[in-house]
Amino acid sequence: MLNNFFNPGSIAVVGVSLEKEKLGNQILKNIINGGFEGDIFPVNKKATTSTYLNGLRVYPDLKEIPAKVDLCIVVVPAVYVIPVIEDCGEKGVSSAVVITAGFKETGKKGAELESKLAKIAKDLGVRILGPNVLGIIDTHSNLNASFAPTYPPSGNIAFISQSGALGCAILDQCRGEGVGLSKFISLGNKMDLDEVDFISYLKDDPQTKVILGYLENIGRGKEFIRVAKKVVKEKPIIMIKSGRSKAGRRAASSHTGALSGADEAYDVAFKEIGIIRAKTLTEAFEMARGFSFQPVPKGDKVLLLTNAGGAGIMATDACEDYSLNLTSLTEDSVKKLKEKLPPASSISNPLDILGDADPDRYRLALDTVLQDPNLDAIILLLTPQTTTNPEGVAKVIDELTKKKEKTILSCFMGGEMVNPAISILNKAKIPNYKEPEAAVRVLRNMINYRFIRERKEEKVEFFQVDKSDAERILKEEMKKGHFEVGGVNALRVMSAYGIPTVDNYLVRTPEEAVQVARKISGPVVMKIESPAIIHKSDIGGVKLNVSVDQVESSFNQIMENAERFLHGDDEIVGISIQPMLKEGKEVLIGAIRDVTFGYLIRFGLGGKYVELFRDFSTKLVPLTPSKVEEMIDETRIISRLLKGFRDEGPSDINLVRDSLLRLSRLVQDIPWIEEIEANPLVVWEKGGVIIDARIRIRKEG
Amino acid sequence: MLNNFFNPGSIAVVGVSLEKEKLGNQILKNIINGGFEGDIFPVNKKATTSTYLNGLRVYPDLKEIPAKVDLCIVVVPAVYVIPVIEDCGEKGVSSAVVITAGFKETGKKGAELESKLAKIAKDLGVRILGPNVLGIIDTHSNLNASFAPTYPPSGNIAFISQSGALGCAILDQCRGEGVGLSKFISLGNKMDLDEVDFISYLKDDPQTKVILGYLENIGRGKEFIRVAKKVVKEKPIIMIKSGRSKAGRRAASSHTGALSGADEAYDVAFKEIGIIRAKTLTEAFEMARGFSFQPVPKGDKVLLLTNAGGAGIMATDACEDYSLNLTSLTEDSVKKLKEKLPPASSISNPLDILGDADPDRYRLALDTVLQDPNLDAIILLLTPQTTTNPEGVAKVIDELTKKKEKTILSCFMGGEMVNPAISILNKAKIPNYKEPEAAVRVLRNMINYRFIRERKEEKVEFFQVDKSDAERILKEEMKKGHFEVGGVNALRVMSAYGIPTVDNYLVRTPEEAVQVARKISGPVVMKIESPAIIHKSDIGGVKLNVSVDQVESSFNQIMENAERFLHGDDEIVGISIQPMLKEGKEVLIGAIRDVTFGYLIRFGLGGKYVELFRDFSTKLVPLTPSKVEEMIDETRIISRLLKGFRDEGPSDINLVRDSLLRLSRLVQDIPWIEEIEANPLVVWEKGGVIIDARIRIRKEG
Q1: Contact A539/B at CB under 8 A
Q2: Would you call B527 helix, strand, or coil by DSSP?
Q3: Of B174, B308, B640, the CB nearest to A165
Q4: pLDDT confidence band for A629 (50 / 70 / 90)
Q5: CA quadruple B573, B574, B577, B583: dihedral positive or negative?
Q6: In terms of C-beta density within 10 A (0-12 exposed, 13-18 middle, 19 or more buried), how is residue B195 classed?
Q7: For residue B255, which residues of chain A lie inside 8 Å, CB to CB?
Q8: A453 with A433: CB under 8 angstroms?
Q9: Coil, strand or helix at B532
């Protein structure tokens, strides 16, 4: 479907100027100079039959063009864009790039114009890239339908950019550093086509090996997840997602909500999809070069080979930082290296072949380690010392690593003395990095990608649950105008999904309270029940360890505290009484709806101090057993507490696993829940119960 | 004292070859080609009166040189180094650079030779740089006494490197990127002169504005702290300390120890001194260029000015990551900018002057903001778009920022299109960074340095303590062969220093236990007391909340558990009984001796789960009130718990402050303590006590 954007047989440029050098003319020139081989039709409404521009006949109107047009580049002022798209529809041009700015990005009026344009284009079946884009480049079909001032070298990295201005810098940098692109796509306002469409197209594009993107937001989150999960099975996706700081924390009533930010959702989603998130452009391009040049490592066993001790130490530090496995050489390799290398060499990992290593010594070492079956990847380090011959070493590397059975990265450090060698390495498709840290970071991500690609999709488990009961409870609350559901009813919803909850009795008088407490036999917990009170203990709405003879006075005291806190209309439902339970590990489980990606589910250390400890893991719904396992492993504290810390025995982790899977099912079943949280879920050696829970319902739901 | 190393009037090179192009000859040539203006005397033992090399008379012996020699460069094989140094002594040459390798770095034999050399040099009063160095460079006195293959441009950054091989890469990189050095010093084995000597010298070197270092270890930690603290008041020190991963975790009996690694000590010391620690060479040079070119910011109010929205967003993200304060423009500036800039501009921070901004628009904007009294620093961002004129903008920046009242950094992004502009900026001493993240990181560190330089030294408080009592208790333990002191005696030591401890009674029989429990009246805590048992609760050696009638059976049970755990010789001192205290916040305070820097003192969340929460701050002894305040602020959890979280009131933080200061005094007074820890120190709303403590005594102490 998008083929016409990258491989059109013919292009019209609507909006060239006949008098001045305007944007349209520049694009026209770029198309011509780029070497595009199809027909090119400039359009200007003042054109006559004898109007020519850059040797091309100019037409007054798209419809006047006496041939088929595959792609229309629109550069007319904003107010004229709609008529041009209407012409496209009439002429049967199904693909258009709207370069023109002045739409949504300028405010309300522009946004209205854009909606109108979107509707018309959709009705006419014209697919649009833009508006407000730098354009589109395909280095393999020699298409430069952009007003970018630099044309990048050809290669196998596709770059998608939501910022045209950054796009200019990136294209220029690619040219400067010899980084080859297959395609460059400026996304602009993403009125129609967006990142989802393009990554989907690039998945099957034979010229693209790596997909790189700069995004400021993702519009269709769930579609993005679905498509990107398929794409990463074929090709790595590296993304810079900016606008992290803009993400205001959402107003939320639970910890699950309070601890979430929009950027966290991107982090969670990218991680789950298997997208590599780069923090900076440099990082992104470093990684892209690695994937572009080298095969994905077969495994995670890495060797450092160096002529400089200091560089080896820095690389080793970085390997520890990035948990990269510095493996041992086989005995056979050690033996061979001992025979060949000078005795002062350090035959270890890093393998230090000393400061006076010449190309021959690099050859001896490299030849041996390339044959070592215990190695998947090698980082070759070099500093230009007195007798070093960097170019000679580069040539040796080129020669010996042609077969590409292992992943080879290099780190030739320095300036003028190593630059010619780096050029040789670049041609040999050995990605060179300025310093060890960068090479190690790239390799870490390449190894991660190997695991991402091999990951298997898991089935989501189904449970026997009472969906209708849960829905009924929530709908009754909504009828009463309660969109924040706490206490007894929230527990009942959890219970309907088979998550164990504490016995909970709602009482309205001191007498009822005493009666219930007698029935429970043993100390009790008393809590205020009011939709207006979220943090109950903060206002003195909770009493722990109350004995039967204290129940009456506690009842009165809680009521007093609550009334002091409440305003006119706020309602007190009553006081809930629960048995005082034995101590256990306090866990939090919760879910919150993210506008982009759907429900995020959270597991972590629960209790009163949740916000202080911030020990949690977040994943996308639906959960699967292995995702639940990852969540548990990703917590620093609660995972270890549950597994049994020091003299304590293990707690019932299965209960936690099961509860998380059921909670995931719950929010999938009842999608008008905005936020749901159980805190704490108290877990004992055997069993456990939720003591308190809250649910927030979406008002429009 | 070190002046002869950088500004010698004459140099001898001992160990040139008369036949082949060896290392000595290369150094000789480097000295000549570097433009050294003093006398140069090559030495080779086979020289006759008519032996010449590179036009210079060669002498057979240092003593034959008919003139004063200020600096001797030694390049003879390792076994001949000592005689050459003896000659130095005899001739009165007080400064020598020993290039020769083959000493400590090669193993035991080399180390012996090095000790011998050190002793002789010291006796003769010859100061030595080396052995095993690349040499020394001073670009201002045109001295290149090194065998480095690249000579760096002249500038105001001094570079000290413990790795010669990395030094080569760095010098080459400096040349490639036009980074100017004042001096380059290869430290080698640091047999005599080390980083302490050189940073001390560089403090007063008028040609040096910034000190940069690559270190793998620091030998004289306390000296280093003392000297470096003075140096950073004058000049920023930027350090890369590698070998982080080598740092094995020390075997330690307390949490304070177990949580420490050697690298942490460097982190703590650098932070306290005010040294900027760089993670990579790139980061180090980025920062050095900032300090080298620009004034230290007057404050922390930063503006981003950009022609690219995307670049502005990335910079804003980075500012949030590095807690940089994006300030508001004054009303006056806003008014002026509104008059001058196109209406679509975003007159905010970032100040976005749009993609078609030409040099004139940059001039209008920059001219206004440079006069804004509310700004201390500006980051100028640019991407090369269609009508951008990067060189023109660079010239405007050069012209307008000559006065250097505000700190100006730039981030011109791209490749070929911005490189000429970057050269202009470089000449104008505007440090340019490849991406916003880097510029922001540099500015953050420059602002930090402003605060470091303004920091005032604080007096250490003195307390009334009973040092002799503490010493007596510990010495008695040592007499018994106990080097791990726990329980009652550790508490008594703390108590001698005025830190409140729980009432603690040591009993040896069930009868005694019952008697004590009666006296306490109320439930008690019982703990085993044995030097062999460190983690008491892990072996069932602790019983909490024991009522008087349970004391006897608990006594027997603890004894049983302990005996099951202990081996033949291990001694049970008894059982300690304490009152069961009301709950409070559990704090850990401790100190451990670091071999390099002396005592590290730690404060954090205490209790049983210390290792899980890892919520602590570490500083060097001696503590001062403001350091204690920093420690508290640096913890994420316990600081907030102590200040009162949610419905809880504040705890007695003053008690914590006082206890930390007293602990600091304790380890200063008794320097044969290896490790000391109180955990928990239970803190209540008013008051608090240490419940358990341990002390490890240095065996050789």
Answers
A1: yes
A2: strand
A3: B308
A4: very high
A5: positive
A6: buried
A7: none
A8: no
A9: coil
> Which pair of tokens denotes residue B83?
């005689």
Which residue from B165, B281, B313 is facing A308, i.e. has the nearest CB? B165
pTM of this prediction exceeds 0.90:
yes
Please, what sign has the CA dihedral across residues B234, B235, B237, B238?
Answer: positive
Nearest in space to A490 (alpha carbons), one of A508, A480, A477: A477
Q: Which domains does chain A have, with CATH numbers?
A: 1-132 (3.40.50.720), 148-293 (3.40.50.261), 296-454 (3.40.50.261), 458-501+582-701 (3.30.470.20), 503-580 (3.30.1490.20)
Residues of chain A with pLDDT > 90: what percent? 83
Tokens 């239970």: give the residue. Answer: B682
Place A252 in a pLDDT band, splitting at 50, 70 and 90: very low
| Percentage, residues of chain B above pLDDT 90 | 83
CB B224 within 8 A of CB B196: yes
Q: CA of B434: how far to CAs of B71, B142, B383, B419, in Å? A: 42, 32, 11, 11
The pair of three-digit structure tokens given for residue A689, joined into one six-digit string: 């119960």
Torsion B25-B28-B32-B38 (CA) sign: negative
**Residues B567, B531: Cα–Cα separation, whole Å:** 12
Q: CA nearest A211: which of A183, A251, A248, A189?
A: A183
Q: Cis peptide leading into B131, omega within 30 of 0?
A: yes
Q: Which two tokens stand for residue A48?
A: 């006559």
The residues near A237 (Cβ < 8 Å, ≥ 6 apart) are: A199, A211, A212, A213, A228, A231, A273, A274, A275, A276
Distance CA(B583)–CA(B544), nearest Å, equals: 12
CB-nearest partner of B418 from A172, A309, A317: A172
Whether residue A613 lies within 8 A of chain B, CB to CB, comes out as: yes
Mutation for B interface: A146, A306, A317, A411, most B CBs within 10 A: A317
ipTM of this complex: 0.91
- Looking at beta carbons, which residues of chain B come within 8 Å of A244? 317, 320-321
Residue B245's pLDDT band, with cuts at 50, 70 and 90, is: low
Q: Is A162 on the interface with B (CB under 8 A)?
A: yes
- Nearest CA among B343, B347, B344 for reference residue B332: B347
Q: Does A466 reach chain B within 8 Å, measured CB to CB?
A: no
DSSP at B302: E
B244 touches chain A (CB under 8 A): yes
| Residues in chain B within 8 Å Cβ distance of A172 | 384, 413-418
Instruction: Please name the amino acid found at residue B591.
Output: A
The CA-based angle A457-A493-A593, given to 5 degrees, is 50
Q: Which of B34, B447, B149, B384 is nearest to A170 (CA)?
A: B384
Pairing of strands A585-594, A673-683: antiparallel
Which runs of consecutive H residues, i.e. helices, occur in B428-533?
436-454, 467-479, 487-496, 510-520
| DSSP codes, B213-245 | EEES--S-HHHHHHHHHHHHHHS-EEEEE--TT
Q: How far apart are CA A263 and CA A243, in angstroms?
A: 8
A310 interfaces chain B, CB cutoff of 8 Å:
yes
Closest chain A residue to the Cα of B321, Cα to Cα: A245
Confidence of residue A250 (pLDDT cuts 50, 70, 90): very low
- Whether B178 and B426 have beta carbons less than 8 Å apart is answered as yes
What pLDDT digit, counting tens, does each position of A436-465 carry? Answer: 999 999 999 999 999 999 988 888 878 889
Question: Looking at the DSSP assignment, which residues form a beta bridge with residue B501?
Answer: B690
User: Which letter does DSSP use for residue A380 in this model?
Assistant: E
Average pLDDT (A618-640) is: 95
